[in-house]
Amino acid sequence: MLGRGMRARCVKPLRQRLPAWPSRRAVTTDAASSHAEKEHVPSEDDKPFDVRLSDESFETYELDPPPYSLQTTKAELKRIYSDMVKIRRMEMEADRLYKEKKIRGFCHLSTGQEAVAAGIEHALTKEDHIITAYRCHGFALMRGGTVKSIIGELLGRREGIAYGKGGSMHMFAKGFYGGNGIVGAQVPVGAGIAFANQYNDKQNTTICLYGDGASNQGQVFEAFNMAKLWNLPILFGCENNKYGMGTAANRAAASTEYYKRGQYIPGLKVNGMDVLAVKAAVEYGKQYTVAGHGPLVIEYVTYRYGGHSMSDPGTTYRTREEIQRMRSTNDPIAGLKQKLLDWEVTTEEELKGLDKEARTEVQKEVAEAEKMAVPEATPQILYEDIYVRGSEPQFMRGRIPEENYYY
Amino acid sequence: MLRNGTRSKSLEVVCSTRSFRRYSGNPPPARLNAPIDYSITPLLHHTAKSLQTSSLSSKSPAARLNLFQAINGALTHALRTDERVLVFGEDVAFGGVFRCTVNLATEFGSERVFNTPLSEQGIIGFAIGCAAQGMKPIAEIQFADYVYPAFDQLINEAAKWRYREGETGGNVGGLVVRMPCGSVGHGALYHSQSPESLFTHVPGLKVVMPRSPSQAKGLLLAAIACNDPVIFLEPKSLYRAAVEQVPTAAYHIPLSKAEIMKEGKDVTVISYGHPLYTCSAAIAAAEEELDVSIELLDLRTLYPWDRETVLQSVRKTGRAVIVHESMINAGVGAEIAATIQDGAFLSLEAPVQRIGGWATHMGLVFEKFNIPDVARVYDAIKRTVEY
């Protein structure tokens, strides 16, 4: 019986064994799916009102769904909008600088995924922690990095956020731990961060992000196990943009239901194109972990417009139509803009003002970053920050004795 | 025979009867390769008096402890004096397979001393995260042989953290990774390795290996206090074998500082960890038979290591023999030998000798042939002297 079954499988042609159809994505990716009644929107900028989220914003696994409403203010909505525009502008500038060969090396842009970075940040305080992988520019900006320091980092300048020593994948800020080039390596580190905060009785949460590709790494599961075992206040977050580098999620993962892959950890799948749904999910998750219920696995269903990195045109493993469709109908910025106008939170005029403000601000800071001097490869710079300053070994060896650096 | 023999003949002493007999019988009594007698070796402080005359002299009373008890004492002190210290690893709550963490969970609670799943990469990543939050995690890898899944975390996360964090002031300096290493005679492929040279290749990590209980206590406390990540390798064969007087109070032995354990003027023998006992026996035999005076150096910290002490010693003696247990190829000895020829070239009377494990894996029954024994160290000293 078993033998026949195995033989039958063996003779199947290869193509049939690799399902090529896209995985089912039950939550909507409609970026404009939230709803508020115009007449309930107050005239004051800072007076709270309720926004109703779409019924298709969440899917849950062993978890009661978060409330389908979100309290916000006009001022906050406008800030979220500005933040997303700023991230996109900054990524576009990075794209330009890369194409002008001013930024070299590796560069992973998050265009299309802005709602995740902005939505998470607006659900947190600076006492919370975020650690993520290499698509990190938006998070670094949200956590308090400046456009200047981030672009400066990409350009490898001394004034960059990590002294220009890391570049695209390596950025730190208060409550932000990178920016990490090794796929999945940040996940157990996030568990450790969460543990330390739990140990110190901090009433905060740790957001530990990874991609759909990294979800298949062994250490992700090691971290899941520890987090559940020790009931850590951590929100694992899979940013599912459908492609792990150039491979569709369903070709790399036996199960693409990433929110269920914590098995014994409750999961929540969120519309990652609607910044308000992201905010609501993370607010709920934070409350959940702070209340001592342990970890959650949140899947942010999102989409990246560009390739995996600058050397990937991003069109060999997906159709141009698919990208175009997401851009024109599911864009997180256009979606929020639409809502802000529908709900009369703001006017076309004011939004244009916000756009322009974000653009000029980003351009100004990028110009300043471009003007930063190229750092000299002096031994003092090359060998600093390997050990505690002042406690370094007497010297570090260069390639030839003349290059030895004496601290 | 050794006294008059040429270099190539010196090994015959060990196997001189083999050329006559094709069958096995009782080996002749070993002259050099006798088992190390830890109760008389000059490397250990057998009496409180010897401790008082050493660099560890203190007013504190001392107690006779073996290596795991000394480490346990250091961990206890660290846990008691600093709330940020955590001890975790596989089976540490029960005392660990080598008993280093015995009673810690009882005294400090499961919140601070706890078992982890069997996931080395996870353990180290987790420890790094804790350290990034200002904690002082002391993670145990049950055997150094198991560290390889965590290699990425150590090299790409821990070692580079300070370098890549920019101006946030973040670091993972609180991290100490303890692991038992080295051969015990029957550990075979996965329980006898000494992977120190894989870590000494990487700036950002400090790599330490103590030789004795009193050294282990001071070095481990210094490693915990040190604000850089430290890999702390413990020679597992010494856990129970090495017993000596250890001060009961806490003390630090500076990292990156070698120790001259025995002064001499003709040859410098540089080693660390367990082979120091082998060296000591070889030196005793060589000094008696070859009429030379040999200096013995314990490197203690393997990276960043104390170049100055080594170079000064070699400039004085003109001859150097480096001994370690791990494989010779691209080992710690290679770096030391290169540094010596770079920094003390004109003082050298003979080529620098390296004695290490052969460049092969630890076959179960071949373990004792694999690691340096007294005869090999003696032979190296002799060749250096007679060059």
From TrEMBL, chain A:
The keyword Signal does not apply. It comes from the Eukaryota. It is an enzyme of class 1 (oxidoreductase). CDD domains: TPP_E1_PDC_ADC_BCADC. Its cofactor is thiamine diphosphate. GO terms for molecular function: pyruvate dehydrogenase (acetyl-transferring) activity. Residues 22-49 are annotated as: Disordered. GO terms for biological process: pyruvate decarboxylation to acetyl-CoA. Its EC number is 1.2.4.1. Pfam families: E1_dh. Residues 83-376 form the Dehydrogenase E1 component domain. NCBIfam families: PDH_E1_alph_y. This is Pyruvate dehydrogenase E1 component subunit alpha. The lineage of its organism: Eukaryota, Fungi, Dikarya, Ascomycota, Pezizomycotina. The gene is PDA1.
UniProtKB/TrEMBL annotation, chain B:
PANTHER family: 2-OXOISOVALERATE DEHYDROGENASE SUBUNIT BETA, MITOCHONDRIAL, 2-OXOISOVALERATE DEHYDROGENASE SUBUNIT BETA-RELATED. This is 3-methyl-2-oxobutanoate dehydrogenase (2-methylpropanoyl-transferring). It catalyses: N(6)-[(R)-lipoyl]-L-lysyl-[protein] + 3-methyl-2-oxobutanoate + H(+) = N(6)-[(R)-S(8)-2-methylpropanoyldihydrolipoyl]-L-lysyl-[protein] + CO2. It is an enzyme of class 1 (oxidoreductase). Its cofactor is thiamine diphosphate. Its EC number is 1.2.4.4. GO terms for biological process: branched-chain amino acid catabolic process; generation of precursor metabolites and energy; response to nutrient. Keywords: Oxidoreductase. It holds the Pfam family Transketolase_C. One of its GO terms (molecular function) is branched-chain 2-oxo acid dehydrogenase activity. InterPro entries: THDP-binding, Transketo_C/PFOR_II, Transketolase-like_Pyr-bd, Transketolase_C. Residues 65-241 form the Transketolase-like pyrimidine-binding domain. The lineage of its organism: Eukaryota, Fungi, Dikarya, Ascomycota, Pezizomycotina. It comes from Heterodermia speciosa.
